[in-house]
Amino acid sequence: MKTFTLKKITPQLVRFGKDESGATAIEYGLFAALIGAVIVGTVVTLGGQTNAGFTTVSTALSDAGIEAPE
């Protein structure tokens, strides 16, 4: 059975503490989440406005007596 002494573990802990690759991955994940949130917000906002526009056009065409083709 191997025994772990502080002398053996300390260099590994120091190297782990200096490693910043995990921080970079977290930053990329946060950027991706932010971009996704912006996309969802934009789609929700524009979706409502687009629906209102189509409803207005549809109402105007119906009032003018023009029916949609089947």
Structure characteristics:
single chain, 70 residues, mainly alpha, 2 helices, 0% strand
Q: In one word, what is the shape?
A: rod-shaped
Number of strands: 0
Radius of gyration: 29 Å
Poorly predicted tracts of residues: none
Question: How much β-strand is present in the residues?
Answer: under 5%
Mean pLDDT: 82
Largest sheet composition: none
Roughly what percent helix? over 70%
User: What's the SSE pattern?
Assistant: HH
Number of helices: 2
Distance between the termini: 80 Å
Summing up helix and strand content along with how strands pair, one would put the structural category as mainly alpha
How would you sum up this structure, described in words?
80% of the residues lie in helices and 0% in strands. It has two helices and no strands. The mean pLDDT is 82. The protein is mainly α and 70 residues long.
Compile the SSE list and pairings.
Blueprint: H1 6-18, H2 21-63
Gist of the model:
It contains two helices and no strands. It has 70 residues and is mainly alpha-helical.
